[in-house]
Amino acid sequence: MSTSAPALRMSGISKSFPGIRALTSVGLEVAAGEVHAIVGENGAGKSTLMKILAGVYQPDEGTIELQGEAVRIAGPIDARKRGIGMVYQELNLVPDLSVAENITLGAPPSRFGFVDRKALRARAAAVLDELGAKVHPDDLVGSLPVSQQQLVEIAKAYASSPRIIVLDEPTSSLSENEAQALFRVVERMKAAGIAIIYISHRLREVIELADQVTVLRDGRLVETRSAEGITAADMIRLMVGRDLTDVFPKTEVPIGDVVLEVRDLSRKGEFDGIDLDVRAGEIVGLAGIVGAGRTEVARAIFGLDRADRGVVRVNGDPVHAHQPRQGVDAGIAYVPEDRKRDGLIPQLTVKENITLASLGEVSTAGWIRGRAERRVATDKATELGVSPPVIDRRVDTYSGGNQQKVVFAKWLATKPAVLILDEPTRGVDVGAKADIHSIIGQLAAQGTAILMISSELPEVLAVSDRIYVLHEGRVSAELPRGASEQDVMRAATGEVAA
Amino acid sequence: MRSITTVGAVAAVAALALSGCAASGEAGAEGDSLDICYVTAAESHAYVTPANKAFDEAAAAAGATVNRLSQEFDVQKGTDQLTTCVSQGADGIVLWPLDPQAYIPGMIAAKDAGIPLIIINSPMDAAAEEYYDSFTGPDVYEEGELSGEALNEVLGGTGKVVIIAGQAGNGTTIGRTDGFTDKLAELGSKIEVLQVVNADFDQQKALEASRDLITRFGDEIQGVYANDDTMALGFIDAWKESGRSLDALPPIVGINGQVQAFDLIRAGQYYATIVQSPAEDGKLAAETIIKLIKGGSVDKRLPIPLTVVTSANVDSVEPAF
Amino acid sequence: MNTVRRAFDSDVFLGLVRYRVAIILVATVVIAASMVPGILEFRVLSLSLDRIGTTALVAAGLTLVLITGKLDLSGGAILALSGIAAIGLQEQFGQVPAALIGLGVGVLAGAVNGFLVVTLGINSLVATLASMLFFRALCHVLTDSRPFSGLDPLFGLAVSRPIAGTFTLRTILFVALLVILHVWLTRAVAGRNLFAVGSNPASAEASGIRSNGYVFGTFVFAGFTAGAAGVIQSLSVNTGSPVFGESTSLLAIAAVVIGGTRLEGGRGSALGTLGGLLVMAILTTAMEFSNVPAYIQSIVTGVILLLLILLDRFVSGKKGRDLSLTALLRSLRESRRNPETERTHAP
Amino acid sequence: MSAPTVSTDRVVKQGFLARYGTQFAMPAGILVLLVVGTVLSDRFLSVGNLTNVLINMSIVGIIVVGMTFVFVTRGMADLSVPATLAVGGLLVLMLDDVIGTWPAALIGLAVATFAGLVNGLLIGYAGLNPVITTLASGTIVLGIAQAFVGGVIVYGEDPAAKDFLTGRLFDVVPMIVLIFAVVAVLGHLVLSRTVFGRWTYAVGGNPHATEASAVPVRRVKAGAFVLTAALAGFAGVLLGISLQAARPGIGAGYEFDAITAVVVGGVSLLGGSGSIPRAIGGLLFVQLLTNILTLQGVPSEPQGMVKGALIAGAVALDVYLRRRGGRE
Fold first, then answer.
1. Residues of A in contact with D272 (CB under 8 A)
2. Residue A109 has what pLDDT?
3. By CB count within 10 A, which of A387, B37, D101, D150 is most buried?
4. For A110, which of C189, C209, C326 is closest by C-beta distance?
5. Which domains does chain C show, CATH number per domain?
6. What is the pLDDT of residues A132-143, one digit of tens each?
7. Closest alpha carbon to D129 in A491, C271, C267, C88
C-alpha cells in the first residue's frame, strides 16, 4: 500500500432530498490497489454516495480528494476524465455495436478519422485478456448473455485507464461460476493498482475480495475496518444492529385457512421449486437479497410472466395465470416494485388510475358509469389518505408517497383475496411509510392474504407473521415471527443450507 | 465488424456480371409483328381509359403488339418510360405528353435511334416539333376557341365568368385555357374572368374548388367554362349544395361530350359541350403510328373532328363516352 | 413440434434470415430473368438502374437518418425545389452554377429539417410532414404551378445518357455514394458513432458523443442527396416542375427498409439499401416489360416490404443469438476444435 | 448533460400557462380566425360560407376521429387511410345496382374494417412499426382495389342516395355535416366514457403499467387501427355516394390532412393525452384558415406553406409548454 495520499478520500459528505436525509457526514478512504467494500441495507445511502462520486449529484456538505487534491466533480464525463470509472447495476451498453467498439466508445484508435480495426481489436483483446474475461471482441453486445455484458461494461471502464473503479452490485444477475470469473477480473484490476469500490449484498464475496469494509446504515457511517478476519455475522450485526426506533404497528389478527397456495413454481433461470402458502389475515414476508428472484416469483404468481412448472391455487381452485387478467379474476393483486414503470399512468388523473384495474365494476356494457367511478375513487382515495384527495388532478403532480397510495388504491379497488406487495415503502417518506403499514394492517384484519416483498429487514420482521427467505431462486428458509435479522441475513446469503 | 450485407454487395455485382453473358435475345422480338410502345397518361380516367381501349383494338386489328406503360399522371415516370421504350428498341412510340417540354431529351434519343414517334391528345411546345413525326388528337387550342365562341354567344358578349382548369402545367389545360381567352380577346368580348382554379380533371377536386368559387362570387358568376365535362359536373354539385336551384345555373361550357353532359343539355342545365371522342383519339393514333412504321408518310398535324353540341343538335350527335 | 422450433432456432436458418436482402435480390433476378428473357441484358439493366437513380439518391441520405432512429418525409419536396432552382437560375448564373445553387437549396432545406427536429425537439415524422407540405407549396408558388424549361435540352442529355455504353452518370453517382457510405458506416469513427447514437443515445452521450450534432448532420446530408437527385432529374429532362418527386420519399423509405435498415434506429447498412433499390429496379422493369399493370406492381412491392418488416421483427426477437457471418463461422470452427467447452454455458 | 431527475417527494407545481395553456389555445385561435376572416371579406361570416366550411371538413373529420385514437395509443399514424377510403368508395358504387346502395355501403365498410384488422394484427400483436406497416398495407390494399375495379372509374347508379346525402335536413343542416357530427360525438363518448376509451389513454400513457393492470394492451392497440380503417371506409362510402363517381386515387392526401388537424389540435404523438374535441378544434382551425385564404384568392397549392408552418408552430409550442411545465 503506497504511503502517498490515498487514491480517494471523501470526508464529511452529507446529502438530503426533500423528506429524506440520504447521507449524514460520511467519510470514505480508498488506497490504490485496494478493494474497499461498502455494505448496508437498501436505502442505507450506498448508491447516493457513489452518485456523488460520479458527479451525478453534488454533496450538500463535505469534500472529495483525488490523490490528495480537493476536486469538484461536475458530471459523469468530468468524473471519467478524472479517472473515475463507474459500473452501474443497469448496464448502459450499445447493443448494435461489437464488444470492441463498446469498450472504446467515444475514442476508438483511428487513423485519419477511420477506425484502425486491427488496433481496435488488439486494444479490446488486450483489456479483456488483462481482465481474464473470456469475451470475443467481434461479438455484437446485444447478443451476449447478461454475465458477459457485465464483463464488457467493466472492461469499458477499465479501458479508460481509471485510477478508481466503482462496481455497484456487479454479481446481482450472475450465477456462481460467472461471479468467479468476475472476481478474477477484480483481482487483476487490484494488481494493476486501481482503487476499487465494491458494493454488494453478497457478504461471502465481500469477505473473499475486500481489503477494507465500510458499513453504512440509515445514511450514516457505522464502521470502517480491515476485512481481515471479518465474518458475515459481524457485518450483519453492524448493518442491522439498530434499535427498532420506528415501531411498526402490528395488530394481532386471527389467521384463517390457506388462501394462496403455491407448489413447485419454477421458471428457467429465475427461480425453482417454490412452495409457499399464505393464509387469510396473515402477512407473509418474502425476504432475500437483490437478484434472489423475489419479484420474479411475484410476477409469475400474478401472471405477468409465464411459469414453466408448478401450480398456484387461490381458495383451492387452480389459477392458470399466463396473463394478469387471469390473476386479477382469481382475486390476486400485485403492487409492483417499479412504481414509475409498472405502477402509474402519469397523464391520467388520480380517479382514472384508481379505477384502471377494476373498470368492470363501475361500467355496464362497456360504458363507464361516471358517478359510480367517482364514488369508488373518492372512497379509496380517502381510505388510503391520499392528500389532497382531489381525484381529478393528474397523478404525476403528486408526491412519491401519495403516488404509492394511488397504486395501492388501484389494487384495493379490485377487492383482492390475495395482495402481493413488492417493496411497498421504497423511496417513500417516513410519514407515508407509517400510513402504508397501517393500511396493510387493516387489510390483514379484513382477512386479505398478504405476501410482502421488502428488502428492509426491520420492516419485514416487525410486520410479518411468517417469513420465507429466497436465496438464488430457491426457498432457503421459512422463519417464524420473532426471528432475528441475523437469521434472515444468514438464510438470504446462503450461509444456512436450504 | 464486417458488415452484415457484404454478401449483398457480392450478389449485386453477380447480377450485373450475369447480365454480361446473357447477351442473347433482343428484348422486343424483331420478327414480323410490329412492336408499339404506348406511353399513356393513366389507367383509370373517364377519358383516358376508353382511348387506351380503342388504341389497343386498332393496333390488334393491324396485327401489332402494344406494350402500354401508364404514367399515372406523373411526368417524371413518363420521361423514364419513354427512355425504356427507346432502349427496348420498339418499332414505334406513341407518347401522351403531360408536360409541354419535359419529354424532349427522350424524344431526341428516339430520333437518334430512328424510331418513329407520334404524340397523342395533348400538344407540346414548338421546340418539341422537330422531334415528333405527327401530333394526332384533338386540337385543344381549337377546343378552347370553340368554347370561347360558344360562351361569348350565350352571354351576349359581356358578363363575369369563372374557369375550372385541368391539371396545372398540363399541355391540354394550357391549350384549352389559352384558346378560350385568346378567342375572347379576338372577338373583343367584354367577358371578364373572375378566377381560374385548377381541379386536375377530377370531379371531387372541382366540387371543392367550386364551393369556394360560389361562396366567393356567388350570383356574380354569370358563366362557367370547364376544361372538361367531369369538372363541370363538380361545379353543378357544388351549386346544388349551396342551396341554389338548378334553373338559376349560369350557362356552362365543357369539353369531351360526355353522356352526363348530353343529359344536362337536354335538361337545359348545360349550354354546350365539345365532343371529342376518346375512341377516335386512340384509333387515329394507332393507325398513324402503324402507317409510319410501314414507311408511309403522315401529316404533321392530324386533328380529330370536333363538334360543338348544344340543345339544338344534342339528339343528332353521339356522346363520346 | 420442437424439431421445427429447433430448425427455426438453428444458426443456419437465422443466418439466412440475416442475409435476407441478398437472398431476395437473387430471387428477384432469377424470377425476372424467367419472366422476361431479355431483362438481364446489359443495356436494359443499365437503364433500369438509371430509372431508380432519383429514388436511390434520396434513399442514400435517408439511410443515415433512419440509422439515428429518425424519419424524413420531405425528400421528394426538396428534390423538386432543388430542380426548380437548378433550371430557373440557368439564365442568370449559367448552367453549372445554377446546378450548384440547386444543391445548396437541398442542403439548406436539410438544415431546416435539422432545426425543427433537433433544436425545436419536434418528432421527426411530424416535423418532416410539415416541411414536406411547406417545400411542396413553395415549389408551386415559385413556378406558379407551371413546369418550365431550361436553356438547352442537350446539356441535360449528357446526364441521362449511358457514358461510353456502360452506366449513366446518375447510376454511377448513386452506386458510388452508397459504397462510400458503406465504408464510412463500417470503417469511419463518425460512422460507428452514428450507430451508437441510433442504438443507445444515453450511452453515446455519456461517452462524449454529441448525439444532437449527428442527428442534425444526417438531416443536412439527406437534404444534400435529395438536392442532388432533384438537380440531376431536372437537368436530364431540362424541366423544373413543382410536381417532381411526389412519390419518391415513400419509395425511398420502402427501399431502405427492404434493405434491412430498421426504423427504430441503431441498425442498417448502405449496401442493404443498395440491395433494396436493385430489388425494386429489377422488379419495376420486369413487370413493365411483361405489361403488368401499375397496380399489380404496387401490390408486389407492398408484399415484399411487409415480408421484410416481419422477418426483421423475427430477427430482432432473437436477442440472445449473434447472427453475423463472422460469429457463425467462428462458432463452427470452435465447436469442431473443442466440442465440449462450447456447450457448457451456465444455465 | 442533465442529471437524471430524482424521484423526490414534492408536489410538482404547475405553471399556469403550462397547465391550462394548451386547453384554451385552440378556442382562442379559432376566435381570432373568425375575426380576421370577417374583417378580410364580407362574405366570410355568411351562413352559406360557414356551412361550406363545415361541409368541406366533414369527410376529413370522420377520419380525424379515427386518427385521434391512433395518436392517443401512441400508434404514431395510419398511412393506409387513402387505401381504406378508396375501398369504401369503390365497393359501394360497384355493388349499388346489384344489391342496393345501403347493403353495398355495408360491404364497403366491412372490407375496409377487415383491412384495419390486418393492420391491427401486425401492429398490435406482432408489434411492427406502425408507420412503415400501414405504408406497406396501404400500398397492397390500394393495388387490390385497383385490380378489383380493373383500373376504370366506377360510376354509381343511385341518384336518390346522392340527393339524400348532399341534401339538407329541414333545408338547413347539410346531411353530411350531421353524419360527421354524430360520428364525432360517438367517437368522443367512446374515447372518454367507455372502458375501451380509458384503456386507449392508458396504453398510450404507459404500456407497461397498463399491462400490469390486467388491461389487454395488444387488443387495445389493434382496436385503434381497426377503428381508423372502418371510419376511413365509412368516409369513402359517403364520398362515393355523394359524387356517384370514384376512382382508386380518391383518398390521396386525406391521411396527411387528418394528421395535420390532430397535430394542430395539440394531440401529442407521445400518446396518453389529447381528445376528439381538441382534434376537431384543430381541424376547424385549419379549415377556417384555408377558407380565408381561398376567399382572398390564394390558390390551394401555396396554402401548403401556411399548413406546414402551422404544424411546426403548433407542435413546437406544445413541446415548449411541456418542457416549461416541468414534466418532460
1. 345-348
2. 87
3. B37
4. C189
5. 13-330 (1.10.3470)
6. 778 888 888 888
7. C267
